[in-house]
Design a protein that fits this description.
Helices cover about 70% and strands about 0% of the residues. The protein is elongated, with a radius of gyration of 21 Å. The protein is built from two helices and no strands. By secondary structure, the protein is an all-alpha fold.
Length: about 50
Amino acid sequence: MEHIPAAAWLTEAANAADKQGPGNLLRVVLIVMVVGVALTAWFLLRGYKRDD
């Protein structure tokens, strides 16, 4: 097993991240969308609470 220094591994990981395409952007968009849907549902559904 080859030992790779931390700095070399980090540099290689950063270079590989550039080649991955829009994966990170899509991940962020999906997370923001899910959070937005949850907040919208909470905002709309809280009006249905009745204090009889």
